[in-house]
Amino acid sequence: MSVRVTEAPAPVVGAGQPLLSVRGVKTYYGNIIALKGVDLDVNQGEIVTLIGANGAGKSTLMMTIFGSPRAREGRITFAGTDITQLPTHEIARLRISQSPEGRRVFPRMTVYENLQMGAAINDFAHFDEDVERMFALFPRLKERIGQRGGTLSGGEQQMLAIARALMARPKLLLLDEPSLGLAPLIVKQIFDAIRELNRKEGLTVFLVEQNAYHALKLAHRGYVMVNGVITMSGGGRELLADPQVRAAYLEGGHH
């Protein structure tokens, strides 16, 4: 199958220069190359999605941006700062938050305590106000405030993982497979929340997602990854309509 690489459209209205810039990034697991020279930008105020088959390298890129594993070659900059070799905790202090694949809430801690862990990175500034913001965004969490994270449903754990990441007041939110294993109604609630954060607060979001239909509907721009290489890029709606994307990622799925 021939692969067409499109020029990314102009940034969305209100979006500025690239907040996150990835150039020539190569990541290895031992001697196996997982990312083979990735170039990608996320502009201020955008939702950008990365789609691709399972095992394409999407989560590896997300983890590489956050410093674990490290890029062996190439450069990653955030708000003009080279973060390629920074430790993960220093990357977090620059106000990048990650909601990793598999949710990974603290299972023995309550919902409230999980939110406290998210706020610790900025020394609990605005804590009470931010807790109320999270409860407005995800009312289910307010109902579960004293419940241990490990006893929540999958959807509730995903809401908590995102809320915990947001407690740090990030400039950039990295979301890895937020819809994985969740019922369609819960997926809609989570994607609606992401859209609302972007519209109302201008939050910049980089989203890795196997559900290409939902991701491309949500995103201003998208990239397609195949075997550790970016093969296509373009506007979210443009990629949704692209015959190659439809054949590879949308046939037999949502339309």
From TrEMBL:
Transmembrane segments: none annotated. The keyword DNA damage does not apply. Residues 20-252 form the ABC transporter domain. It holds the Pfam family ABC_tran. Belongs to the ABC transporter superfamily. PANTHER family: HIGH-AFFINITY BRANCHED-CHAIN AMINO ACID TRANSPORT ATP-BINDING PROTEIN LIVF. This is ABC transporter ATP-binding protein.
